[in-house]
Amino acid sequence: MCGIFVYVEKEHSNIEFEKIFDLLNHRGPDSRGFKTIHLSNQDIKLHMLHTRLKINGDDTPQPLVSDDGNVFLIVNGEIFNYKELEKELGVSVHKSDCEILLHLYERYKNTDISQIFKRLCGQYSFVLYDKSSEMIFVGRDHIGITPLYIGKDTRTGNIAISSEMKCLTTIVDQIEVFYPRRYSYVNVKELLDSHFVSHVYKSYISSEYGQSTHKQNVLKTLLKDSVQKRLKDVIVNGVEFGVLLSGGLDSSIIASLVVKLAKEMGYNKKVKTFTIGVSKDVPDVVGARKVATYLETDHHEYYFTLSEGFESIKDVIWHIESYDCTTVRASTPMYLLAKKIKEQYSNLKVLYSGELSDELMCYLYGANSPSLDEFQRETMNLVSNVHYFDCLRANKTCMAHSIEVRVPFTDKSYVEYILKLHPQYKVFGNYAKPGVMEKQILRDAFKGCLPKEILYRKKEQFSDGVSGYDIESNWIDYIKKRCNSMYDEYVYQLRILDYSFNRPQTKEELYYRQMFCKLFNKNSYSNTSELTVRKWIPKWSNNKDPSGRVQIFWNRN
Predict the structure, then answer these.
(1) Chain-centre distance of CA 186, in angstroms?
(2) Tens of pLDDT, residues 491-519
(3) Are 332 and 429 in the same domain?
(4) CA nearest to 152, candidates 134, 171, 139
């Protein structure tokens, strides 16, 4: 992973690029690259800035440049199938796996440029500039695993694109998310003179299920292949890595596959696994310990106090760039976990994690779905918006400590298979046979790979699982108590009137929102927060608190 920043300047500004470098340094501490390009109209300049976390390739800094010197590219991400694309295109890349994008661009720039995204397997966001045609090409992966934002200064018309919002808040007055599954390919002058326009290259929202049969070996094979793609370069390059292990189904499956495949690839060490909780007795820590023992990993348990977690919220919001309640709650222990891992293993660069599995087969509230079609639509909705929530959390909390997170459940082939599968194979609760659990087909596919009590452990949200069941050891109850003590009812009712959309519904939400505005300049965000931040709310439930433990469909194992 890396940090990218582009500034298209038609009217002179006094941006201090060194400050941008500092803001993005955590996303790429290994090297820095910078290039200013003058367009044929000498009044227009394009600045490309890059910070690199090196996994593949030599020490060449970005922007990467084509052989003819006309095309410039900066990328945040990894292209996992670049070796296959080398053979397909008859080329060889050495500077970075992302260098393959230059060759794909050359192949498709005069035909159908959207074909590039069909060829790619990876997690990425990029900006490419073609000096010969003065076209700028921006794209983001199919899930939104890596972040990307675009902003405009309405006073000057200047455009900025960045991996993180914090680089934009003081230089533009309009900020938008550059959505996953989209690209923009436009002449730079047109970009400056008109409203930003992007095109869809893939839509999961419009996908229709049709597969009326399901074979467990297909699901298992697809996920195994996904892990293998994301592990091979790490093993080959000798990169230090580990697995985030909560002891739940999804992270445990990923851990089992990483351990098995790493051994097959010649890795002769124990795979490192990591977990966190408020004590050694909370559900996630206990579950992770069982999995680590079963898989014989080099396991590490970390603990945080409730006050330590609360005092970290300011830093968490600064890095995740969101005030969504459940995202802040879950991001805090993940941020602290990544921090503690980096403190102990300063050379560790890659972690594997289980995000997107829940969205693909719906959260626990899916048990209350009113129909099979509604269940299917909700999974589409969750997958389409995960870049606002779990994928944002995983990427930004780990990259806060210069660690790249890889998420095998996001593989295109796996995602497409699950989404197209008839909901009768995924549904649980109202429309399922007695005894069917959430993600039953995933559980059954990995029989024999994990202890039975882990394979059939009921879903526990990460922000809940790090806690005990009593109020003295409950992370979420502690946050609520602290936030409730900060505002009397009159002040609370007065303060929520400051917000015309996504209005805080609790004192906890108000605390997050005020912290967010304080960190990111309220004036800059007054017209953009609705686009850049979404609120996660459980569906088909009367209780809108996002904690899984307060829902009627949750029960203690």
Answers:
(1) 27
(2) 999 999 888 888 999 999 999 999 999 99
(3) yes
(4) 171
For residue 545, is pLDDT > 80? no
| Long-range contacts of the stretch 373-377 (C-beta < 8 A, 24+) | 373/423, 375/423, 375/426, 375/427, 375/431, 376/209, 376/423
Is the predicted pLDDT of residue 131 greater than 90, yes or no? yes
In a domain, 102, yes or no: yes
* 37-60 per-position pLDDT tens digit: 999 877 899 999 999 999 998 888
Task: Give Cα 502 to chain centroid, integer Å.
Answer: 22
Residues 229 and 196 in one domain: no
Is the four-CA dihedral 149, 143, 273, 261 of positive or negative sign? Answer: negative
CATH number of the domain enclosing 488: 3.40.50.620
Residue 255 lies in a domain: yes
Residues 361-373: tens digit of each pLDDT: 998 899 999 999 9
Amino acid sitting at position 370: P
Please report the DSSP string for 243-278 in residue order: EE--SSHHHHHHHHHHHHHHHHTT--SPPEEEEEES
DSSP summary character for residue 211:
B
Q: In terms of domains, do 237 and 187 share one?
A: no
* Alpha helix segments (H runs only) across 265-353: 283-295, 306-311, 313-320, 325-344
Q: Closest by alpha carbon to 180, among 233, 131, 234, 120?
A: 120
* Structural domain boundaries, residue 32: 2-200
The verdict on whether 517 is a catalytic residue reads: no
* Total tally of structural domains belonging to the chain: 2
Whether residues 178 and 231 share a domain: the answer is no
CA–CA separation, 357 and 244 (whole Å) = 14
Could you say which of 2, 98, 121, 449 is catalytic? 2
Residue 155 near residue 178, CB atoms below 8 Å: no
Task: Give me the sheet containing 199-200, strands edge to edge.
Answer: 64-65, 71-79, 122-130, 135-140, 182-187, 199-200
CA distance 121 to 229: 9
Please identify, among 170, 200, 230, the residue that sits at the C-terminal boundary of a domain.
Answer: 200
Asked if 175 and 141 count as a contact pair (C-beta separation under 8 A), the reply is no
The one-letter amino acid code at 525 reads: Y
| Mean pLDDT of all residues in 327-337 | 97
Strands of the sheet with 350-352, listed across from one edge: 298-303, 272-277, 241-244, 350-352, 404-406
Residue 181 structure tokens: 């599954």
Q: What is the CB neighbour count within 10 angstroms for residue 73?
A: 24
528 pLDDT band, cuts 50/70/90, is low
- Over residues 244-255, the pLDDT tens digits come to 999 999 999 999
Could you give the strand order of the β-sheet that contains 45-52, starting from the edge strand earlier in sequence?
31-38, 45-52, 2-9, 159-162, 149-152, 174-177
Q: What is the CATH number of the domain that holds 58?
A: 3.60.20.10
Domain assignment present for 155 = yes
pLDDT in tens, 260-292: 999 999 999 999 999 999 999 999 999 999 999
**pLDDT given at position 537:** 86
